[in-house]
Structure formats: C-alpha cells, structure tokens
Amino acid sequence: MGIREDLQQRAHGETVYYDVTRDVQAELRALEAQELDRRRQIKEKVLPFIHENEELRRLDLEAMDDSRRLSELRRRTDEVVRFELKRQGLADGLVDLEQFIKEILDEALGLGPLEALLADETVDEIMVNGPDRIFVERAGKIELTNHRFASAQQVHNVIERIVSPVGRRVDESSPFVDARLERDGSRVHIIVPPLALNGPTITIRKFSKRPMTGDDLVRKGSSTTQVNRFLEGCVKGKKSVIVSGGTGTGKTTLLNILSAFIPDTERIVTIEDAAELRLSKIDLVTLEARKPNVEGKGEVTIRDLVRNALRMRPDRIVVGECRGPEALDMLQAMNTGHEGSLTTIHANTPADMLTRLENLVLMGIDIPIPVIRQNIASALSVVVQIERQRDGTRKLSRVCEVTGMVGGEVQIRDVYVFEATGLDAKGRVCGQLKPTGYKPSFLDELRRWRGIELDDSLFVSSPDDDERPQTIGDPVTKPPPSPVGSVESVVHPGSETRHTATAAADEAGGTTEALEG
Hints:
Blueprint (H helix, E strand, L loop, with lengths): L2 H9 L9 H31 L2 H12 L2 H20 L9 H13 L4 H6 L5 E5 L4 E5 L2 E4 L7 H12 L12 E5 L6 E5 L9 E5 L8 H6 L5 H12 L4 E5 L5 H9 L8 E5 L11 E5 L13 H8 L6 E4 L6 H10 L6 E5 L3 H15 L4 H11 L2 E7 L5 E13 L2 E15 L5 E7 L7 H8 L32 E2 L3 E5 L2 E5 L3 H5 L10
Parallel strand pairs: 7-11, 7-12, 8-9, 8-10, 10-11
Antiparallel strand pairs: 1-2, 1-6, 2-3, 4-5, 5-6, 12-13, 13-14, 14-15, 14-16, 17-18
C-alpha cells in the first residue's frame, strides 16, 4: 500500500499499520550488494601486486614441490596484502578486515570461496553452478550457501589451480574433465561452456580426513556388526566382491573399507579413473587412467591398466569402477588366479547389476551371452547392494551370494536384507539389516582352506531383531535358487519369489507372479 493511500485512509479516521519489513530487507540486500561490489573492486586492485611480485612467484613455484614452504608463501603474501591495503587506503570501513584478507589469500593461493567449504567437516559435497550459486550437501541434504565467486573469471582461475597439478586440462576443445584435488584426493568433475550454459560448473566429492571404517558404518546405521564380520571374512578368504549402487550412494567409500580387510602380506594393484582409494598397505601399486592430450594422443584407459596389472604379479586387483569393456578383463582376472579382487558398478539392484555387467562385456567383444554368464558365475562370489534412502542416509540394502548357473541363468541368494519399518518423527528412515537365514555355500571352504571361521550366529536374527526369533543351530530351509533374468531374483528361506521378464513370465502364462514355496 502506498503513502497516498495511507493518508487518504487516515483522513477518514482509520488506523493504518505500515509493514516496513519488506523495505528493510530490500535496503539490507542493497547494502550487501554494495559491500560485495566494493570488496570485489579492492581485490581487483590488490591481486595484481601479488601475481607480479617476483618473490611470491618464486615461493609459489617452490611450494608446489615442498609443502613446508607453503606456510612461508602464505605469510609473505599476507604481508604484501596488508601493505597494499594500507598504501592505497583501501582498508578503511571494511567489515571484518581479517576475514577479507583471508579471502584474498584463498583466491591468490587456493580455491577462493571453496576453501572455507573444504575445511568444513560437515560438508560432504560441493556443487558450483556458476559464479554466484554454490551448493553443498550436509547429512544427505543439499542446501544453498552464501559463498560466491566474484566473477566467472575467478571460477576459471580456480579450475586451473585444480587441474594443472594433476596433469589435466579443460577448455572449449575439451570442455569437461574428471580430476582430483592434489591436497587430499577428493574427486572433482568440471564442465565449462559451451556445454555448461550457466557458466563453469564444479562438483567436488569430499573425502573425510580420516578414512571410514566398518565401525563407522555401524555407528551411522549403514551396516551391522554381523554384516561387517561376514564381509571381512569374505575379503580375507579371497572371495571376489562387487559393490553395486546408484550415483552418490557411497560405493567408493564402501570399497575402501572392504579393501582395508585385505591382509598386509598381499600385493595389491588399484586402478581408477581418478585415484580416490586410500589404503594403508605396504605392497600397494596405484594406477590412474589418463585422458588424451590436445592432439588426441596418449590416452590410457582402465582396460589398458587392468591388462598391465596382470603383469605386475598382483594378489588382488581393485578397480574403482567398471563402466566399460574392462569388465571382461576384470572377470577374466578373477577367474585366472586373482580371486578376491574387488570392484564397483552402477546398478539399482543385484539383478540389474548382472544385466549391466553383461552389457559392459558386450561393449568390448561380441561373445555369446551364455559364455558371459558363465564367466560372471565363476568369477563373482558376493554382491553388496548399497542405497541412498529418502532421508539422505546411505545403507547396505542387500548382501547376496552368487551361487552359480542353473538353466542358463546366474543365481543369486540373499544373505542379508534391509527391512524398512517406516519413518520416525524427524523423517528418518527406520529399519534393520537382517539375515535371511540362508548360509552361504562357501562357509565350509573358508573354514577348511582359509582358516576363517564364520559362526552360524551371523546368519540368524536375534530375538530383539525379529518378532519370530530363529534359534541358533536350527536347520535353515534352503529352497532351490531362482533364476535371475533381466529384472529381479530374490530367494528367502521357506519361500521362493521369482520376477523375470522372460522364462518366469512364460511359465506363469505371460504374467509375472510371486510363487509361494
């Protein structure tokens, strides 16, 4: 309502209340914009003196090879910034001078406004959607921050600081790149115009300063002590494990935890697009794929590295992710003396994982499907499915054994299944990762040939977990496994459930049914 209308109403004896909140908020936004613009102008005046300072340039080059010189570089740069602010009279009236000087140092020597987010341990992922929109993920939820870049050019400068130390490049001719932060190995994806219409886009998947362990998974509710002990026994017993899940579900984190179970006496070769795994092992070889150069030459693929790894006398091969024809080489390695190897794959269910694995093999060579399935059944022992729940938490949803081939189909049996019970008052998913009662067929092999004893209590629910408790030592019903086609296959004790798009549908008269055992 305008002032004229207010006065007209007052003339008729009416009381008028004018809400000034909106005007105050608009004025505050204008003042904030003015302050940001002033700070940007000051930075533009000070930064050239840093870049042109010969001593700082020399220290910058030395700090690239010697991290001990980095603190000296930052100290000297701080002195230069304070001197120029005083000499040019730019510090008068600045809000929070020390924070402003830190911003200049971060922009000159680091990653600008991303530095504070990288130092924030509550932030799991950083997403830059152009200069003025920076999002983060905290506890599984995405939120907009008040951090921003001064300009698109500053974003490009930060991108150059990210990709140059690791030998990568990004420009209009090669407008996207996967890289890692040299400081901690965090995964980085960058895409720039003309493909990114809103400006340069950066996505950083942060690594925690302390690698996660199986105990951390239990504490966060992602797994249980039972499941961890089972998976530890599988890895130590040289059972090949594949971790399946969607984007951002924590596959690499889980792979890192599983890899830590490998005995220190074994030789390990890790292969990744961008090195992310952090293993504290004595005999460890880390390989990283390479993109082609400007002339389109020099590319080294994951498949090339898997083939070379076979000549390095590895006991285990750990592939960060199978996403192409290297899947065939990985399966062959598992079948030719490198059992116990580990990898991950993008898939929503264990059955989808088997179908995707077939498709990846066919990307490299045209061989009959039955041959591919036989290789899969022989190579893989355990499938771990991990999911991101609606509340943002990551949980192991299924742990399955690959039991073999029946009727030309690969068989899987659930060992543990996550049963959701609903949401609590805060909207968090409630449920338990429970054993199905099925005991894997390789337990006797682990005990007799590997010396690994997995107690039967790992595969039955405790009275507190189930309204119908199973007594330890009771016989476990083991119905015949159901075939896995292109959709789903789950077998529970005492019942058989088949969901397929092929054979089962035909047997049921053209419809998919659940068959009671």
